[in-house]
């Protein structure tokens, strides 16, 4: 057993002094209780928080950094030229940056499945396993969200070069690979690796296939929805329905479901999301970068919808920024301050930190995200002597962490009881 005693420990929405966190040899938190002495010598200026969870990532898009800011649509070109080694290397870089920034787990929404001409690799799971291996080498907990992509997105007339690598001919081919992948993940015997399913979007998966994939799988289910107005218009033209209604009719709304973006959701859709017990994943730095719009975090919070955040396109890898933008973008929209109304008993800062930790862990069913006995010991050490935090009164530290800190204040992270600086 390893025991940690930091100056402050994040317990149930508050920073508590004088706590001890015991980590069992299996990497889980064995107990949380009163400290038996002063803080550890090197944790006198540390606040111990649950590690942040990046609930929506496309790791290979790390390779678009900079390139995409020159105004070119570089996604398909990048996807077209990556080989397995390149995908593995880019994923490692992205995952390393995530862990350095304070993320301890990732939901990797993975759709780059095939060789450049569309031929499956041998085994068909090769790219998914390369990404999982990259996360393991960087010590990041991962839920591989195995994505189905069955037809070209409406954004291009037909199969643009890169998209051939994403496409499966039918849901059966996708589900066959999903079963192979499930066996391979079990075979790894690694408690840091989980598996979920991700019909990419209503644009790229027809309605009957959405239903079939939902019925044939278990575990977390993630899907992009209501990201852009054009997606909604195209869906109306095809089905006479909004994308959300197509998902609903396909039976995809429920407690296992996380809806990615929901930028242009209407009030009725948010009410139905709450009633279904589904979660929303906002990706504010990506939504800002793409100019897609402001996600309805105010309405989602008021409706009690479970929420999480993701770095999505990797334009920024910074959990602090994702979280404070949930409130910040709503301030710009409403021309007011303190816009989100947190759940009863939670401060605004606590709500944001919950979204960044427990919210993501639950959306990925990973068993981390809180400093509680039984959860994985996935932690972040926040350096209170960082220039952004030094001198802040203890009573204001949660707000300073949520609104003023950056990854520079991350002194170390723990994943399954293993520490990395
Ligand atoms: Zn995405």
Explain this structure to me?
By secondary structure, the chain is α/β, with parallel strands linked by helices. The chain contains 13 helices and 17 strands. A 6-stranded mixed beta sheet has the order 3-2-6-15-16-17, with helices on one face. Strands 7-8-9-10 form a 4-stranded parallel beta sheet. A 4-stranded parallel beta sheet has the order 11-12-13-14. A hairpin with a 5-residue loop joins strand 4 and strand 5 (29-34). Helix 2 packs parallel to helix 3 (126-137). The model has no long low-confidence stretch (mean pLDDT 95). The structure holds zinc ion. The site of zinc ion has 6 residues, from loops.
Bound molecules: zinc ion
* Secondary-structure class: alpha/beta
Q: What is the terminal-to-terminal distance?
A: 20 Å
Calculate Rg over CA atoms. 21 Å
- Main sheet? 6 strands, mixed
Number of helices: 13
Strand order of the largest sheet: 3-2-6-15-16-17
Shape designation: globular
Bin the helical content. Answer: 25-40%
Mean pLDDT: 95
The H-and-E topology, N to C, reads as: EEEEEEEHHEHEHEHEHHEHEHHEHHEHEE
Low-confidence stretches: none
Number of distinct beta strands: 17
Strand content: 15-25%
